[in-house]
Sequence to fold (217 residues):
Amino acid sequence: MTAPLSCEQVEQQLAWRYATKRFNPAKKIAERDWQALEQSLVLAPSSFGLQPWHFVTISDPALRQSLREHSWNQPQVVEASHFVVLAAKTSIDEAYVSAFIKRAASARGVPEASLDGYRGMITGFVEALCAPGAIESWCTNQLYLALGMLLTSAALLGIDACPLEGIDRAAYDKALGLPGHGLSAKVAVALGYRADDDALATLPKVRLPAQSVFSRR
Fold:
């Protein structure tokens, strides 16, 4: 294990980050940095470790321009170095759970049968989500854990980011062909480097005082 960042370094980078409104289109994220950001999504936590999600990186300029039209015309969609759509699974079936158990057994070097109890726990949980849309809602909640990992990792690397929930999810789904893969777009993230003329970059953060959002019992 390498030495962790200091508390001061973490606090400094988290204070530095903000939801970037204007990016410098000429400044691109280096490939090695992008690989690290992708790994932050791969390593993101999820309940049971199921990772009920998929991430689509949009490089095609024409596609990004069309998605801007479904994103309240926000310029980040086309100005940022990278643009990622985070999609959640709309259902979880037995085959998906079985594939996960097989992968877990292989990764940990144990027989699949030794994970039968875990398989049963996951299956029971999923089956209990029987209300219409309940599984998709749960998967969406998991997806936001990955979003947090991506935003935090970007800040620690000195890379600007802006999460966009102001998107037409149905239009995104259609443009990216997600329903055919059992997926639905929930949020997008623009990543890159802030433009020099983004006035929001230097504005003080507006946050509730710590004592109003924490309690100790």
DSSP finds nine helices and four strands in the chain. The chain has a mean pLDDT of 97.
